[in-house]
Write a structure and sequence with these properties.
The protein is of the alpha+beta class. It has three domains: 214 residues, no CATH class; 107 residues, Immunoglobulin-like; 127 residues, 3-Layer(aba) Sandwich (Glutaredoxin). Helices cover 40% and strands 19% of the residues. It contains 15 helices and 15 strands. Strands 10-9-13-12-11-14-15 form a seven-stranded mixed sheet, with no helix packed on it. A four-stranded mixed sheet has the order 4-1-7-8, with no helix packed on it. Strand 5 and strand 6 form a beta hairpin. The protein is globular.
Length: 474
């Protein structure tokens, strides 16, 4: 893992250089019967969602997409859903592109979108040509350093003169590589592409220590090559991947769930405090990043770490409302509290009230979920067969509350629940913004809440199916 993380990339460019005009991508399509084209950003509020598209472009035709100004500069995926023949089923292909301050012209064979002999930009295109050149040079520059890394990681006699000589050679090459990287970033500083280069920076590492000492050394130097004063890094997908590497290093040190739950909040605090010394936009991005992680992993200790930054006017987090709701929920929705009542329609459009179930013995499990949520699918896959066991089903009533909103999501939900018989299926029409979601402080899915049927009080808020299965009352 250390070896992999050493090769993560960033750069510097002022946000003020962002385009102040709309840019176009012109396409010349060939080689297929027809294709749809979509532009998908790799950062921002519409992450991995199409922001512009054009339908049914035939071979030999030229068309264009207009890129909304608020996404510039940025990284994107161009997706082609093409038909090789008129009767063929559409097949997808994707091409990663950068857009800075220049409109693009692209000659495309959608079946070979990443083959330079079949798909290419105009001759004077800057961003993508510069990044392709850097990527090629970077591979050659790293080749020998990579071999040295493998040697240092695998060699068994770390006290030998031979090993120490390997460290000296590695350090010489590492310093030289980072100087080359600095030079390339400066040469291309007018381009958005340069903001991606420095994610390749090689930090210092204590090779003479134990595995744990090496890990701590890498963590301690992880931010050395990053310019947190450069707000354009927040428009790259690499920043998210690079921070995932930082979090994963801390995860490697966790030998238990309890240790993980203490290490990750500490990691968040260090990262946010470091970003705080840089540009406000990077500072706000960092708070948003850890909010998403703590919310998806149900880590209340992490949410507490974020609380002080809500009161900092210099922190432009876009998740202020969500963090405040989660913190309020942590203080309000606790075991021993009566579960808020609600009325929702079931799959037959018949109103169902929670209080109708709070009679007799046993438990009610509220499962807030979404049919297109991958984490929900994993939870349901484990939870459903377990809940049908006779010794469980006689003590547990599962009420699955869908937060699906769009037509596509609702269609997927209707299809999915046909295979989940035995559960009570309800849907909150307003989804994550519905009253029931607000009452239960739901900000992401899945969420499970276990209720005592006799008292109507919350007894447990399991963070996983394993926690639920270990509950003593079931």
């Amino acid at each position: 893992m250390i070896y992999n993380i050493l090769f993560l990339l960033i750069g510097s460019l002022s946000i003020e250089n962002a385009c102040a005009r709309e840019l176009k991508i012109t396409f010349h399509i060939r080689g297929v019967a027809g294709t749809n084209v979509s532009l998908i950003p790799l950062s921002g509020p519409k992450l991995l969602k199409s922001i512009a598209d054009v339908k049914s472009v035939k071979s030999g035709q030229t068309t264009f997409l207009t890129v909304p100004d608020e996404y510039l500069p940025g990284e994107f995926i161009l997706r082609f859903d093409y038909r090789e023949k008129p009767e063929s089923t559409p097949y997808p292909s994707e091409k990663h592109i950068l857009i800075g301050s220049q409109s693009l012209e692209l000659w495309v064979h959608p079946m070979f979108a990443n083959n330079s002999d079949s798909t290419w930009f105009q001759q004077d295109e800057k961003e993508n040509n510069a990044f392709a050149l850097f990527t090629s040079e970077n591979g050659r520059q790293k080749e020998k350093i990579s071999l040295l890394q493998q040697f240092l990681m695998a060699y068994d006699d770390t006290g030998s003169d031979f090993y120490r000589e390997g460290i000296r050679e590695y350090e010489k090459r590492r310093v030289g590589y980072n100087k080359w990287l600095d030079g390339r970033a400066k040469d291309d500083k007018a381009l958005f592409a340069s903001s991606l280069y420095r994610f390749s920076y090689l930090p210092d590492i204590a090779w003479t220590g134990s595995e744990k000492e090496r890990l701590l050394s890498l963590i301690g130097h992880y931010f050395d090559g990053i310019d947190f004063n450069d707000p354009v890094i927040t428009r790259t997908s690499q920043l998210n991947e690079w921070m995932n590497g930082y979090v994963n290093l801390h995860g490697q040190m966790a030998t238990s769930v309890a240790l993980r739950d203490s290490l990750l909040p500490a990691a968040a605090k260090k990262a946010i405090e470091t970003a705080k010394t840089g540009h406000p936009q990077v500072y706000g991005w960092m708070v948003d990043y850890f909010y998403r992680g703590f919310e998806s992993n149900d880590l209340p200790q992490g949410m507490k770490v974020l609380e002080p930054y809500l009161n900092d006017p210099a922190c432009p987090t876009t998740k202020r409302m969500e963090i405040e709701r989660r913190l309020k929920g942590m203080e309000t929705l606790l075991p021993g509290v009566v579960a808020p009542d609600f009325v929702l329609n079931n799959s037959d459009n018949i109103p169902v009230r929670l209080s109708e179930f709070t009679k007799g013995s046993g438990y009610i499990l509220l499962l807030f979920w979404s049919a297109d949520c991958s984490h929900c699918a994993e939870t349901v896959k484990t939870l459903y067969p377990w809940s049908l066991k006779p010794e469980i089903s006689r003590k547990l009533e599962v009420i699955a509350i869908s937060l699906d909103e769009t037509d596509a999501e609702i269609t997927a939900w209707n299809s999915r629940i046909t295979g989940l018989k035995g559960w009570t299926h309800l849907r909150a029409k307003e989804g994550i913004n519905s009253k029931v979601a607000n009452d239960y402080f739901i900000l992401a899915t899945p969420v499970m809440i276990l209720i005592d049927r006799k008292t109507g009080k919350i007894v447990e808020m399991p963070g996983s199916t394993a926690e639920l299965m270990n509950f003593s009352g079931l």
